Fold each of these.
Amino acid sequence: MTITIQDQLSNGSAEDASDGQLLNQMHQGDSVSFEALFHRHYQRLYGLVFRLVGNRAEAEDIVQEVFIRLHQKPPSDGRDEHNVSAWLYRVATNTAYNAIRSRNRLWQRNQHLVPDKRDGSAGPEKAAEQEEEAQLVRLALAELSPMHGQLLLLRQLGLSYAELAETCDVNPNSVGKTLSRAAEAFREAYLRLSAQTDAEEHNP
Amino acid sequence: MNEFDDVIAKLAVLEPTKEDQPQAADAAFATLQQRLEQPAAQPQPIPWFRRFTLMTAKQKWTQAAVGGVLGLMIAFFGLTSSGQALASDFLGLFRVQKFAPISISPEALANLENMDFEGMVPGELVWDEEATEPQQVASLDEAIALAPNAFVFAPDLGEPTDVAVGSAGSGTLTVDLAAARAILNIAGVDGNLLPDDLDGSDISVATEPGIFMHWDEGNTTVVQMPSPSVSYPGNFDPQPIGQALLQFLGMSEEEAVRLSNSIDWTSTLILPIPSEFASFQEVTIQGNPGIVITDNEGGESSLIFESGGNLIMMQGNWSADELIDLANG
């Protein structure tokens, strides 16, 4: 007797199916496999995208967009086991990066129109400071390549080196080195942007 | 705490708070299903040949057709339009004067499509003036009045059924070397072919208004416009980038080196032709160089040629010979 993914989902054993198996089922028109992939990756993709865009509605929308693309055109490169997670995280990161870069440009053009949260109207001082710090971190991330940003954020999300290699489709032997480069690039961008912000505060 | 741990700790400020938690996965999936059921969310697959027309009709002229190393960079870098005077700090300039068709494999075509589909952008693109969808006008005379530099040619098919004018556009891509290299790496090409000094380079593209004409006879479409101009810093060496992009399109390293060294990258438009879907031949139209592309399934042909600094693309349900005859008048 053949056990389908649908059977596996209904009896709770779909966890045993690999991403690649689910994708293969999707290619054969199995919508249940698509749903299984969604449930498997939704939370973590949201966590990644939210960290980049900092807005719940926008993050949810981007994650939905990623799965719409997966549904419309599932990746296929002829291999039996396509790295679906690498595809999902790459598309999510690229889409989020496009969103934040676009927003940063808009912000830079219109920053004279944005109310200064430090004037006390934005709530408790600590929350305002935290939001300011988050904005600075996001600006620094936006200056990295999407792959570097993705690696750092997924590491912060708690992924092991082996999981990072799988999810980001990088050589397992070079994960540490690539992470170090990404961290160094982030640090440089953060320090520079931080100095710029300080200078603007002292010379508004 | 070492520097790496310090960076990871800084990123913790981005963690979602309790209020930032997403809706439950079941509810999110229900929303997703609703979106998928909307017709607009499920475009029908478009044959390659028709897509070529569609891109043109949507003014994605440069993405569809403009190659050369810099034209190809436009496709590669996702630029789709542009049109203003060159900034004084740009010393190099690309304009189309000749064509170099290149057969590409289905895999290379998929690379090009996936790049767009997966949102991969090798840098930051800023539009100064974004080209709009072509606007229909009442007559060819009105189109010429709106786009005086565009019109150089009309086939002998009588009055066109539809005439439209596409607007000018201009934009600049600031190259993100890491992102550009990542795109090449994904396609199996060594990203280090791109030189270090490419990082942060500004590449500007400008297009002038174009004229779109359509005739019911033969479902014929003609698009014409002044050649888009691509400007780039004077220290910019297009050869290694050309090599990388030719490899991205599926050429072997040896072939790409040979071709990139023999092409005049300041004036040659590379046309990637998926060999699975179409064949091509070099032709002369009104004394000017051109390329005719024929759908392998037959029934449709497309012609692109240069005339007096303008690019003209013509397409319809004609054989290659019929299309050439129409173009030569």
Amino acid sequence: MSGAGRTSLVLWLIGPAFLGVAAYLALVAPPATIPIGEMKIIPSDAVKGGAWRQAKVDARGVVAGSDRPCSECHKLFTTPPGENKALVQHKDIVMNHGMNTRCLNCHDGDDRDKLVLHDGTTVSFADTPRLCSQCHGTVYRDWQLGTHGKTLGSWDAKDEKHRRLTCNECHEPHSPAYKPMKPLPAPTTLRMGDQSMPKEHHGKESPLRRRSASPHEGGPEHGEPAEPSQDKTPMEPGQPAEKGGGK
Amino acid sequence: MSIRIHEGKSAGTEVTRRSFLRTGTAVAGGMAALAAALSPLKDLKPEEEFSLEKFIQKHYKEMTPDDMKGALDRITREVEHRYKVRPEVRDMRPKAGVEFVYALNLSRCIGCRKCVYACVEENNQSRAPEIQYIRVIEMPRGTLDLEKGNHHYERPTVPDGDHFYMPVQCHQCANPPCVKVCPVEATWQDDDGITVIDYDWCIGCRYCEAACPYWARRFNFVKPEIPEADINKDMGYLSNRPRPKGVVEKCHFCLHRTREGRLPACLEACPTGARKFGNVLDPNSEVSQILKTKRVFVLKEEVGTLPRFFYYFDERYPRSLDPEAKQVALSLGYTPGAGGWTPPAGDPARAIGGGEVAR
């Protein structure tokens, strides 16, 4: 075939070839899949902003079913200030406040609707920082500066919505240490997700794997097949390998 | 093109029936192929990825107030079309005399990841594939070795006593490498220190993502999926309006909230008060006090990015994890158990309540 004939043949074929490719892409080829995973729905309540616990601002409803002030009952019953007895009421209260194990260390024995300081001054239930500061002086100082505790409303102290939470809006006064809590699920983002990759990579331990999955006891090993975790969103195999060296 | 067809015979412009048909068929075939290749464009609706309005939109800094109003209207229409909710899109400008700084107390962080998902919800981040601005890295206690860090941890409860937790997000650097590498100036540092992105100007080259030493930037490989019910209608042009496919996004200190005085969503969700935010130019603000009174450090100080995100420890251990406190408890006769510590018999703590003590 002459050179001219070959050229014209090629030109003849270009159009149909493009059409063929277009038809293939439009009709036959499967759509490109990007492993987007499944949608994880985290209830809004789990990440709701605000105070960690509902603090009591007045002395009401401590006993189940009651919405009366504490003094209503306590004018009938008195508690001897000495030894503690097994209580009939308030059994749901768990005491874990170090050496501070006496009710009347903080609660006023005479006026049950108040709290009491060491010097006998009574303060309201909404004014816990003054009470707690008697023992936790350094934390109180930090709290005054704003370096301990939580502030809501506004970052600007001049804003009227700026409000620093009081001690008992985060800490349960009878057992103030934070309890361990369940963490929300681990990320499965395209770059951070379950990096399913073989343990062995060309006969060597994969460096990406070594970095991204640190040894941790009990938890599922990453990249281990046939171990679907309940908490994890299943990801399609063939995840893109972690970019940027897994860091 | 026609020159090649007449090759060898004559160099003139003589058109024969044969050459006309050949050329015509080739041109028709080429046009058909071109039409086929462009055919996806006909499915685009103005309310979706492409519109002329968006195409001719100016750079954020060159927009007049009228331009911005038009852009906000367009975004409102797009969001309404896409998610069936009517958003309130605003353009928030930095306030004078304000420079934002974040401080995070590593002694208090328990690794619960509430900040991560509060951020996802606030900022209309894609749920599938997941995009998260905050990464909580779990590291063995006694080290600050990111190589030993793990952000995939799954535990029944946190903290587990042997690890500490370090949330990492955009550090809003004063010397931001991401801004330097952007070829189109789609990302820049605003006057209040927040590095922002104009999602309409971003070309998706991902240079900034590679430049960031904190791995703070995220790329939208596909159109973000957000359930209609979970759309946050309070939107800012530079912050949490829904992003299109093919642009980069990152933490912006919730600027649609913080520029009107509110606090970032991650801070509000934090159960322990580990997160602190404020104006560093105000000497009495919480963050200024932290910088003054605490031993703060920045992550990867040696790379010279000058972050506005500070970490600090103010206790050696949270009280519940303190090994010395455990020693004291043991010497007092407390017995460790699955649920916590049980006081010895005759201890007053036992008489009140159950004496159950969390660890």
Amino acid sequence: MSDHRDMAALRVEGLGKRFTLHLHGGAQLPVVTGVSFSVAAGECVVLGGPSGAGKSSILKMIYGNYLAGEGSVIVRHEGRMVDIAQAEPHLVLEIRRRTMGYVSQFLRVIPRVPAIDIVAEPALAAGLDRDAARARARELLTRLNLPERLWQLPPATFSGGEQQRVNIARGFAGDHDILILDEPTASLDAANRQAVIGLIGARKARGAAFVGIFHDEEVRDQAADRIIDVTAFAPRAAA
Amino acid sequence: MTAPDALLEARGLAKSYGGRMACAGVSLAIREGEVLAVVGESGSGKSTLLNMLAGRLAPDAGEVHYRMRDGVMRDMARLSEAERRVLMRTDWGFVHQDAAQGLRMNVSAGGNIGERLMAIGGRHYGDIRAKAATWLTRVEIGVDRIDDKPTAYSGGMRQRLQIARNLVTSPRLVFMDEPTGGLDVSVQARLLDLIRGLSADLGLAVILVTHDLAVARLLSHRILVMKGGAVIETGLTDRVLDDPQAPYTQLLVSSVLAA
């Protein structure tokens, strides 16, 4: 199993995080320590454990959104291995454009930009021309059952579930080899949860690696090749 | 010494006013196509820094180097006056918070845009006017307003005109000082969207001074946090805003009301 090392799309080694709350007397909040696992191309690894165990923080460190306190996040980016924890900002952004995508729980709405362009943006960034990017956006929005009358509207006024489908479509619109999913299906109904499982399966078949958090057991069991219990990375109680 | 990919690089920039240190030895580099936000409260030294970077204020100490279009890195202090003028009129832009500072208020909108073209040798009236019209359209101002003076424009339109005036010469680096400050929120959103689109389409490098963290999040790739004239934190924009490390950055981020 650990023989996937050479084929790993992503390898996390000794990753750790603690927050220092300077506004609260410098209180220390240890989150995780010694997080190590790897994800092969075409594999979906799901992080399990109770809420507050640090699952989301691990995903954010992998994406470079949180600073890694210790350890490394090695990503296969255009044929070479890069440590996100050490990479310069411009390289992290390049990796996000080309190699690693992220689907959050909520859409960050950009004023005035219509849904279809929000979805098409990662495809443009990946190098598709405007027509091809929009075609891909239309296909994804169709698969996720977003009514066509909404496509040209900015999602600010959409329902939570509609916004989240725009968010997921956006997350899948790039050509990323690694996708990070932070509870993407939390606000979706059963049909759309199945649509997301379908999208994950199709991308896995094309060699994409996934790391995700899914609270919904049905989704988790269908999507996961492997579940990693993050309580194993809990900092010692003495901290 | 020079970062190989830097478009502009500053080292040890310092300025004090009557014994008060406004900028205390700031070094930074920006790459081509990169949007860098300089954030901090009023009095943090961010505007002083911007003005020194843009050659509008002489530093007490420190250097600014810029990669000219021929690829050669030049010390701005050693440029001839003629070279400086050409640089500022073509390869650089400066967008002021108060559009009246960046526009000629008694010259028509078309004239405001055309002036930068004439400064670099544009002579053909028809071409200049056509280019001005194109740029008015790009910044969402009706071409029928081309002969109006900015005094007849709303605040948001003036700001968009100022941007058009700056971008008409295809600069590679644009300095912006609180470009959305003082505008209504709805007007701000439109302007932000425009700046975001243009900087991405044109591959502009932008050094943006703002006290508004939401503006920094929307527009910038990287953030530099200033306090008391010094840089106290820098990094990828979403990393700095979502996982701030310095005590002052934590205070800034936690002081914002989430809408």
